[in-house]
Design brief:
With 332 residues, the chain is of the alpha/beta class. It is 42% helix and 17% strand.
Length: 332
């Protein structure tokens, strides 16, 4: 009995007690575009697996491409997705709805970049002119970053009670499908709240122009993508969690060290035949574009969502939305 007790204690101390082993297989969900380049490099170079192996874990990572945040949200809550890159509004919504159970929080920010409201309607002078003649493609109606930006703009233009004024004009389409719809006026789509490189490609279309950007609405540079997971996963898999965060940091450092090389990597991995190296390099080298772990204006989005009742109990600070590993960063 004494030997059995000692053996059990030893297992507990080493963290390898039966039933306490960390997952050996995870799934990471992402969407489309150059903004997801850190995840693309992490997949290509096996960075999560590399850092997990250094921590003593043999890990398999599955990569899932999705059209919008709703699939990621559902996957996180069901346990079928372990990490996902979503917009700040999705983080805020998930954080509020899962307090006390799954406990979704941010791992870190990933990409700050402007979202561009592109239209081919010659009658539009500003968002205030939008009408039933317009159909706006966004990744997910009502919950995507683009949808929340339109709500913030409507609240500013027409007063807070009318923040949903533009919701009825939006349709859910992935960015690739939205670009095709804008090109062909499919189902009346004449506007797309776009990301790069789709924005750059759409600006070649006759009559296409930008009415506003997310930076205009938010008042400066802002996180467009953050990585999220659940408290349940974070607490049960500390080594895998830290391996992911280390892999994200390594990928971001590699991009920022040589952006031209990173631009070529995007073209190769995405098999993008429509964009040139110079075009992608110009996008990610712009001062408005940043790959960073630091959250930017996430809290401002949360405050708005609290004011309009999208979340009943908004966070007191941006740190409430993220796990402690990045609390020392100068976020907002």
């Amino acid at each position: 009995m004494r030997l059995k007790a000692i053996a059990t204690a030893a297992l507990l101390l080493t963290g390898t007690a039966p039933g306490r082993a960390e997952l050996s297989e995870i799934t990471v969900a992402q969407q489309f575009g150059v903004s997801f380049l850190p995840l693309m490099l992490m997949e290509r170079d096996g960075l999560i697996e590399k850092h997990a192996k250094a921590a003593g874990i043999e890990l398999k990572t599955n990569w899932l491409k999705v059209a919008g945040p709703s699939v990621i949200n559902d996957g996180l809550l069901s346990g079928n997705v372990h990490f996902g890159a979503v917009g700040a509004p999705s983080l805020v919504t998930l954080w509020w709805r899962t307090k006390g159970n799954a406990g979704v929080k941010g791992v870190a920010a990933m990409t700050s970049y402007p979202l561009y409201f592109v239209t081919r309607n010659p009658e539009l002078k500003s968002l205030k002119d939008l009408s039933s003649k317009d159909k706006i493609a966004v990744p997910s109606v009502k919950i995507s970053t683009q949808a929340i930006m339109l709500q913030m703009a409507a609240a500013e233009l027409f007063g807070q009670p009318n923040y949903q004024k533009f919701d009825e004009l939006t349709v859910s389409l992935s960015h690739p499908d939205a670009m095709v719809a804008l090109m062909n006026n499919t189902s009346g789509v004449n506007a797309h709240f776009a990301t790069s490189p789709f924005y750059e490609q759409e600006m070649r279309l006759p009559g296409a122009r930008v009415l506003t950007t997310s930076y205009d609405i938010l008042g400066g540079r802002a996180s467009a993508l953050v990585v999220v997971t659940t408290t349940k996963f974070h607490d049960a898999n500390p080594k895998v969690y830290k391996a992911f965060l280390a892999a994200e940091k390594e990928a971001i450092d590699a991009i920022n060290k040589d952006k031209r090389k990173a631009a070529q990597a995007y073209l190769d991995i995405a098999q993008d035949k429509k964009s040139t190296l110079d075009e992608i390099f110009k996008v990610i080298d712009d001062n408005d574009y940043a790959f960073t772990l630091v959250p930017e204006k996430v809290f401002k989005t949360a405050v708005f969502m609290g004011k309009v009742g999208s979340v009943k109990e908004p966070p007191a600070t941006w740190r409430d939305l993220f796990f402690p590993d990045i609390h020392d960063l100068p976020g907002d």
